[in-house]
Design brief:
Three copies of one chain form a homotrimer. Chain A is built from 24 helices and no strands. By secondary structure, the first copy, chain A, is mostly helical. The longest helix of chain A is centred in the middle third of the chain and has 34 residues. The N and C termini of chain A lie far apart (about 90 Å).
Chain lengths: ~425, ~425, ~425
């Protein structure tokens, strides 16, 4: 096969030399040997037809190219494709690394100070120096293939358009989205495929069954975030941001459905989101209570440092899935996988993802978290299951420490704290 | 895109007004704006070609339609499609809500009194007032998208045929079945796709590779339950019901295969089912024994009421996946997911679903259940791992209570009970 | 449908009787009734066109055929398809049962004596009498559908080519590989489908998107193992075997990519493999340490015999997923599922399989293993969490036993053993 390709391309070369002498002389002879697929795909591309040659995107400084200093990033493409670039930059795709970081900030009681990892005080534009704790703990190889392979969509059009082919047929096919939008943490691809929308697409074509692009890139926009009412981690936007977005999405639904239908479907998704967030919050409180009582195994101060927070317990956006206690790891799955599946399943009208892969897992995970908490409390001499209950003074000490932590985290008011503290000390006197 | 659709449809409208004046006058002008896809799909349908207009299915009382009081359910379709309706009603699809309930009654020792949830005493026709404990515990939103979205197949032809398109190409495509027959509890879609049947369909077309419909809707029947020898939860039918069903399925197999081959393949499925049921039963016994000894954490009387059984332990058809103990939740997965995958995988000839997603998970889950039982027994001072063994009188008391529960559940005979009780009391005297 | 098939084939029969009288007279009349699909597929096959009739492959002794003594195995096909057979036999497909066994020997510290299960002392050719512990523990039905259905590729061309169709279109379609190369232990099919290669194939066809066959059966070879640098279980080959294999794979990559690109991509896979193997090894050491301290629950001597190793702990190639302790079952998942997904995901450039289905699961599983180890140690009175610490003499005894086991397994040298032993005895004297 390789041989016949070479024969054909050598012939093509002769033609090329005549029609675009610079290119042919400089790049093609070698690259037919070195990167045959790249040449082949470029030859089949709209760029080729329009006379856009190698040097237009790659420049003509071969030494620089070799050293990897002439990357064809978004700015190169944007010089011609201005509208697409502007739309892209306004979307979540345009802040993919930031999005990667932002996507985990879905905890109701999160430390607001952490906003500064991404934002100037009070500002909404993300800074460049974003850090993701999970990324920081990866080897460079896992970081490359496991993180940046997808998150580089921020600065590389090739993420979707491929490198040299840049075929619209490829990029308008929903399969193109599958490369990144799949897996345990955001199986949008899988849930679309087996939704009514997806099965209609497969059985009756795009006129009847909408694709990812139909709803998320309506009218060909590159702003894939139009109409979204939450962060990529599922934290609901405040209403002043959510309401206009919802209106945008309803306009898209209304291309096929009645306004009432669209409104009802999306409102159901909102309700599922609120309910699921409450389950998450219940689980998170259990973990913080165990931490207050020094019952996590191991406690944060017995582990390798968290890359951003050191020895502190982290259950927010920057939560890790390594070197934590078992109960935190259960919570990680719950938050990152089960919650995402439930709510994205509901918005995409997929029963199995909403219910079985989502809601049922959320609830079973909560059972597991409670069971582990019960074991840890028993170990610590607390609760009905404890074998050797602690004496009253020790118990009061512990409860005071818990109270003090809760007021610091803003879970209870100063007033509630004072009242509870008084009650505990009174109890101690009586015994 | 929306604009050009409107232009085309406005022109179409002019034509429509001439050929079906009532319809056009009443519905189309508005609905081209309000539900454009519905109009478009109806226009492409066999109904349109046959002159069947909106009012034929929806009636002409617009006020009623708006209030949702003129639903196009199965009775409306059945007025014309009589044979399909009769076949559908005779099938599991025709009792989808009941089936949803029935699908979980796969426990060998289940309380026969519970048959009355579905059936008149001694009767086989299900009653209307079926209740599903898991459904009763859902929010209305999860109930809608997570339960009824699929289980409404009982009364809605649109579940498979879609609302206005009603294209036979859609409904004969196996992808149509994927919307419901997928996921952790019954991945029939996934296991067919990667079975020999499914891969032959994908690689060589329907002449060589049979679809869901080829075997489960042979000769176009709407009775999808022909040839099935168990409940949807995998409880084997008694032989007087199973034997004629098996004959029916073998006739379907024989369209392609030799009688001997079909018989052997299905018999293998039966054997896998029997073996898998035994593993389930072993796990269930462990849980009931822990319950007899008050070792579940939490015990049923420490939880929110079960919607149908209150404070009783439920491991049968009505088992919940929320607010139970950890060991019950492990059993839920085992019964609802692992068992289903193993046996359905075997009947659909999918090695990975039978073995790895099924049988291996069943066995690993049994390990987990035994490990958790060991922890709970240790906590309760029972067994080799116990730290503070109870005194003999307490032990005897406990064992007598367990015995008494076992005879009540019918696990042992009155005679066995009397013999065991005498032995325990004798032992106590000797010590 | 059955009827019309019969009509057509009866007519065809008349023609057949004229063109190939022996066949028609002997087999077709009956088999049109008994195995209609087989006849139909053979009629559409290249064999039919070339005049290859039933007796050429099945022989003409009908009694033998009926008794299953005339199986059309690889030798029958190989008589004509010599090159394919030779290539197949040189590949992992040609030793599928042995491969099934070999695939699990991925433990760094495995007992080298076990090589003799497959190999003559010092030899590299596997013996016939291979035994797989997991297979030996299956019922014959699970063994059939769950093990041999795929592993029979060793001796049956029909595994890929199907029985009578033998169409090249089927076998060149990547879907054909999905039947076996899927599932939790080796989801090559799933990870290719959502990789860049797979999505390009789906969206732009085979000229742009390579299939399984493009890379693993380049130039149509039947040696699917060309270019592979590890056992099917992921144990890296020694460099004298790995280096030439890597060169072969790079030649395949170079059909499309630059040599530098291919080298970098594969080297990244190697790095991920090394890192993942280290995580596995850490987990395995924890289990052996618990075993040395008799803390597994249950210990190997309290379980049914391992089919090959009896009462010994097995964490290598022959590890079981039934009747083990909970912590071993966690390790089974880690080794057989998580490790495979991580490294195969990396080599196939699939971010979600490398990271979320792979690396994250590996690390979360390690958390779970450490948590369970902590519980078991607490139960055994060891470590910070222990409730009733053992006295010094008992502790010293135990540590000496652990040391002695470690030196026997080759984890520490004789010298280290002597030094540690002296230190322990000194400590005892001081207390």
């Amino acid at each position: 096969m390789k041989h016949s390709i070479i024969q054909v391309t050598v012939q093509l070369l002769a033609v090329l030399i005549m029609i675009c002498p610079v290119l042919a002389e400089d790049c093609i002879p070698c690259h037919l040997e070195k990167t045959p697929a790249a040449v082949r795909q470029w030859e089949a591309s709209a760029h080729f037809k329009a006379g856009i040659g190698c040097e237009k995107c790659h420049g003509s400084d071969h030494a620089k190219i070799i050293k990897g200093e002439a990357k064809v990033d978004m700015k190169v493409c944007g010089a011609c494709h201005k509208k697409a670039l502007t739309e892209h930059n306004a979307s979540r795709h345009g802040m993919a690394l930031h999005s990667g970081w932002g996507c985990t900030r879905n905890l109701p009681a999160r430390n607001q100070g952490e906003c500064r990892f991404c934002h100037e005080d009070g500002g909404s534009v993300p800074q460049g120096g974003v850090q993701c704790a999970r990324f920081l703990r990866q080897s460079s190889e896992i970081g490359e293939i496991g993180c940046n392979y997808c998150h580089s969509v921020e600065s590389s059009c090739a993420s979707c358009h491929t490198n040299h082919n840049t075929s619209l047929a490829i990029v308008r096919d929903p399969n193109s989205c599958a490369k990144c939008h799949m897996g345990p943490d955001h199986p949008q691809w899988e849930m679309w495929q087996t939704s009514l929308h997806g099965t209609l697409y497969t059985t009756a074509g795009i006129a009847t069954g909408p694709t990812c692009q139909s709803c998320h890139m309506a009218q060909g926009t590159h702003n894939v975030s139009i109409g979204i009412t939450m962060s990529s981690g599922g934290v609901p936007y405040p209403s002043q941001k959510a309401e206009p977005a919802r209106k945008e999405m309803l306009q898209i639904c209304n291309q096929c459905h009645s306004p009432e239908f669209g409104r009802k479907e999306l409102a159901r998704g909102d309700a599922v989101r609120t309910q699921s967030l409450a389950i998450l919050k219940e689980a998170e409180k259990i973990i913080w209570d165990l931490s207050d009582r020094s019952l996590l195994d191991p406690m944060p101060d017995q582990r390798p440092d968290h890359p951003l927070s050191g020895k502190k317990l982290v259950t927010d956006a920057q939560m890790l899935y390594e070197d934590t206690s078992h109960i935190e790891r259960l919570f990680f799955k719950m938050k990152k996988y089960d919650y995402a599946r439930t709510i994205k399943g509901a918005y995409h009208q997929n029963p199995a993802y909403t219910h079985w892969y989502g809601n049922a897992e959320l609830k079973m995970n909560l059972i597991d978290i409670k069971a582990e908490a019960s074991r840890l409390r028993e170990r610590g001499g607390i609760g009905a299951a404890a074998k050797k209950p602690a004496d009253q003074a020790t118990t009061t000490d512990r409860e005071l420490r818990v109270l003090s932590n809760r007021v610091k985290r803003g879970e209870i008011t100063e007033e509630q704290y004072a009242r509870e503290k008084a009650r505990l000390l009174e109890e101690l006197k009586l015994k």
